[in-house]
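INFO batch 0412 | record 1 of 1 | parsing
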Amino acid sequence: MGRSARVIWDDALISYDFGPGHPLAPIRVELTMALARDLGVLDKVEVAGCEPATDAELAMVHERGYIEAVKRVSATGRPDLEAGLGTSDNPAFQGVHEASALIAGASLAAARAVWEGTAEHAVNVAGGLHHAMPALASGFCVYNDPALAIAWLLAQGAGRVAYVDVDVHHGDGVQTVFYDDPRVLTISLHESPRTLFPGTGFPEETGAEGTSVNVALPAGCGDSGWLRAFDAVVPPLLREFRPEILVTQHGCDSHALDPLANLMLSVDGQRTAYAALHRLAHETAGGRWIATGGGGYELVQVVPRAWTHLIAEVAGHPVDPSTPTGQEWRRLVRDRTGEAPPLTMTDGRNPEFHPFSDGYDPADPIDRSVLATRNAVFPLHGLDPMP
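INFO prediction complete | emitting tokens
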């Protein structure tokens, strides 16, 4: 297998657009790709196009009747509330099927490249639509591209696929699709469902043989606590599960500036998580790694920098956090948004954490969340839940 990295991109991916004022604005991926290009990150990878997912491919996860309903909405622009289209979260718009199928096709192209060995790592920053259900649009998501990538891998003969979701919201759609399938380990680190959509993702949701794993973190959790929780749960389970391939979702709405959630991470903390997942892909999955974007609603200060760091990590050429963002990109930001752009690729943080293995603090709400998850699933994997 070669050690190349591939970015799946087509300018038409920004057609996934719910309209003015919607939080999931396509400018976030447009600015991400512009920043990655401006910093030379895209020179370190192969940039490849994609085709829309076919109906047969979409049917690996979604019900045929739902696909037909999305097509009808796509043709007319008229809502179909039974399919979840026409709500404030998922407004109906003409072309919604084509736009959604292209995002799904991009993640399928990433999966195909890594599975067939034409790339070791692949990323689709426009993807990560993890809330879509088999027969329902939900949480800004119409077709569930991470679940489709995993289903495609299973159809090719993969025996064990691991999915790690670091979006601030629970990866409920992916969990639902594979809840009873022990071939797929899903791990989601998210803000507690008591305080955030979609209201699921409790530690007790353990799936088949403990392969559904949920770390529900308290509001206000910052870099050090989040990284402590990640380190306490993700590496031990991936080492025990030994996936053939690792799929990750990188919603950056865990950032302190994100308007829709309540965690307090920095771009630096998020970059640290990307590097950890890269290392784990090599340690546990033979280096085979598929990454997607996800949520992220601070469109200028956070998403472009976070996902440029992600692309650079996938490429194996991380960007130094002190790197300036560049005059051309700053002009683009001002022209397109009227906002003042960030000047460097850092928030000025140096994320550090004390490992959970050093000891459990029952007075710490983060440690209580970690132990709840470890108690729920670690024994099912033959692991000791106590540090």
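INFO post-check: The first helix runs from residue 27 to 38.
INFO record closed
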